[in-house]
UniProtKB/TrEMBL annotation, chains A, B:
The gene is hom. Pfam families: ACT, Homoserine_dh, NAD_binding_3. Pathway: Amino-acid biosynthesis; L-threonine biosynthesis; L-threonine from L-aspartate: step 3/5; Amino-acid biosynthesis; L-methionine biosynthesis via de novo pathway; L-homoserine from L-aspartate: step 3/3. Gene3D superfamilies: 3.30.70.260, Dihydrodipicolinate Reductase, domain 2 (3.30.360.10), NAD(P)-binding Rossmann-like Domain (3.40.50.720). It is an enzyme of class 1 (oxidoreductase). GO terms for biological process: methionine biosynthetic process; threonine biosynthetic process. The lineage of its organism: Bacteria, Pseudomonadati, Pseudomonadota, Alphaproteobacteria, Rhodobacterales. This is Homoserine dehydrogenase. Residues 350-424 form the ACT domain. It comes from Maliponia aquimaris.
Length: 428, 428
């Protein structure tokens, strides 16, 4: 058997503790599978004195993660602290510069600094892996980077924030309002300290930007992800969508088009009978479409100690086995700067609006759509509420540009009350 | 860039041709991703003169795959001929003995000779990969061997024969009898030359035995897979199952128990609302359950040129990138001889039988179950047909042994007409 692989682990929260447990409890199994003993040389965390339910005996302690990352007895630096900048980034950079391999679960750091870290890794010959950063326990980075490496990827989609999917599922199943479902999720401890990371789509957007980089060979470009949170999704929309055979999901979609890279993380309608439509609660799902393989769907837990630690260990085991793949599946220098494109691949759209309850109002709306070249697939006017007439429209495929033009023209007619809701129907 | 990786491809059917096309059409992409040019040195097939829709110019031709496999200008032997023995096995053995890496889609060969081939590969330091042998384009071998390498695997399940799932789906959706659905699948060219490979569960059983070897670290033991085809599934059972919220699938299940390794490939009931229950038509699905990751579900095309070629190329790209994992995820010598166990993990069962239409018949059946310790969860007697009274029973969890004892006792009472149908309900 070869030399042991020696880890330095920074961050001993749920995931870090989970990793330590696996390494302690499955030592023989891991050694048999990888051909090397997996050992922990040193650990680091904010607080040393704390009962984490696992013994840290035999591991050196470092207060400073940078010092940990560059220790002579550390082959792989495992970064589980989190935070896009600050100590996590400093320690990862120090490790890479010192030629240490790095395994991280830090989506925010990679979404913001993925390219520079990939360049740094390449310069020193280090490997930087991040399976745990996307969709928890689902080995999707591996599938996309390695298993499907013979494909040109056409589209990547994902429901990758379990908290949002939980909230949307509870609104649908439990008939809760957004605020009620949000409060329930909060009570269960599902929300990040800054909840906009979840419900604003930022966390899921980070993940999408990483998948897009691998899929399309572009530098990570989180800044260009069109982000729309779930705060504007109403129980009314969920009901109406369900009535027409759809579910509303916070769906990430990335595709390369002739105009550039489209990346969006927004509430979308998907067919209720599709795998994405059937996804309930906190589970994650990633859909990859390749020119050879067709559609691959992967489903599993997107968070939690076990699943995330499983992903971290997958990366550690790969390194132990000698796998050395470029960070985003190609040399950092070969990653093109993404040309961001506004989402404009034609799609059907779901529209909901309230009209003034006067003759001719609906005709004006229909005219505004027609003039912008948006044709109507289904339209439904339903029970009046006070003085307003709620209207639902499903369009045929149209571009977002044409739709926005129609929406602007509608607003000009004076018959539309409030802002219409417009959600893309993603064809899956 | 490193030296090119030179392939010798034996077998130029749909999959082989698909691989050649990918290598010709995506040369730059593959080189960028793997860091090496992927080249074809030589090819071999039964017939040289045949329009395969792709140029073979520039590749040496070998009539004998063994000669091809051992050519000096071949680094990786790609075996796409099929057949568990004969030329495929001879050529793969020759390649491995010569220290050439091998990529194959040949599930039958691996199911029968996986252990000896793994030993052979290890002896010469060669790598033997077979992603395309299981579930077509779904990168499930990679997920199980690498991505989930930090888990103890608890259960592996799969719907892995698209033809069977197509037939069952058509029986359900189209109300066809088994014979009608079989004839339809045959007309569409979905069946193997020997259809028992499909409908007898043999092909899917081969795949299950390979997954089990990786999951549980045991030598491939196809001979111990309990095989039951779909020929005995009636439209009546499909309807009754649906009525109770279940679907019938040809489901492979492997789990390690205290008694040994259980492997079964048999028609089972699964909840209609589960991912397995929702699987329609020819699509494949594999479910992996690990102690850390929980349940991972993977879904995609299980056959066809593009998906299978995608899987072959995933293996080729791994080799180009320098990944060298043991055939079944551990050294061949570390794979334990499987201790096969009859499927006896307690499960609920679905029973359908016809009773003589006489007072006391049902009581005798109930008594037979009770005496064997099998308790009844639901029982339903439905419309009489001629002189017989059809009865449906769903049991609580019981072992197959207790159930068989009850079934034997029932037969002894003389009230049961024909053989009762007994299908396991797999809890997923």
């Amino acid at each position: 058997m070869s030399q042991p692989l020696r880890l330095g682990i920074a961050g001993l929260g749920t995931v870090g503790t989970g990793v330590v447990k696996i390494i302690r409890q499955k030592a023989a199994l891991l050694a048999e599978r990888s051909g090397r003993r997996i050992e922990i040389s040193a650990v680091s965390a904010r607080t040393r004195e704390k009962d984490r339910g696992v013994s840290l005996t035999g591991y050196a302690w470092e207060d400073d993660p940078v010092t940990l990352a560059t220790r002579d007895d550390v082959d792989v630096f495992v970064e589980l602290m989190g935070g896009s900048d600050g100590p996590a980034k400093a320690a990862v950079e120090a490790a890479l510069k010192a030629g240490k391999d790095v395994v991280t679960a830090n989506k925010a750091m990679l979404a913001h600094h993925g390219q520079s870290l990939a360049v740094m890794a390449e310069a020193s010959g280090a490997v930087l892996r991040f399976e745990a950063a996307v969709a928890g326990g689902i080995p999707v980075i591996k599938a996309l980077t390695e298993g499907l490496a013979g494909n040109e990827i056409e589209r990547v989609m994902g429901v990758m924030n379990g908290t949002c999917n939980y909230i949307l599922t509870r609104m649908e199943d439990g008939g809760l309002s957004y605020d009620e479902a949000f409060a329930e999720a909060d009570g269960l401890g599902y929300l990040e300290a800054d909840p906009t990371l979840d419900v604003g789509g930022i966390d899921a957007g980070h993940k999408l930007s990483l998948l897009a980089a691998i899929a399309f060979g572009t530098q990570v470009d989180f800044g260009s992800v069109e982000l729309e949170g779930i705060g504007s999704v109403s129980i009314e929309d969920i009901r109406q969508a369900a009535d027409m055979g759809f579910k509303i999901k916070l769906l990430g979609v990335a595709r390369m088009t002739g105009r550039g890279l489209e990346q969006s993380m927004a509430p979308c309608l998907v067919p209720a009978s599709s795998p994405l439509g059937q996804l309930q609660g906190g589970t994650n799902m990633v859909v990859i479409e390749g020119d050879q393989v067709g559609q691959i769907v992967m489903r599993g837990a997107g968070a939690g100690e076990g699943p995330t630690a499983s992903a971290v260990m997958g990366d550690v085991m790969d390194i132990a086995r000698g796998l050395r793949v470029s960070t985003f599946g190609r040399p950092a220098g070969a990653l093109a700067r993404a040309v961001p494109a506004k989402v404009s691949t034609p799609a059907p759209y779901y529209l909901r609006m309230a009209l003034v309850d006067k003759p001719g109002a609906l005709a004006k709306v229909a005219a505004a759509l027609g003039e912008a070249g948006v044709s109507i697939h289904r339209m439904r006017q339903y029970d009046h509420v006070d003085e307003s007439a709620p209207v639902l429209i499903v369009t045929h495929r149209t571009t977002r540009t044409a739709l926005d033009q129609a929406l602007a023209a509608m607003q000009g007619t004076g018959v539309v009350l409030d802002s219409p809701v417009a959600l893309r129907i993603e064809e899956v």
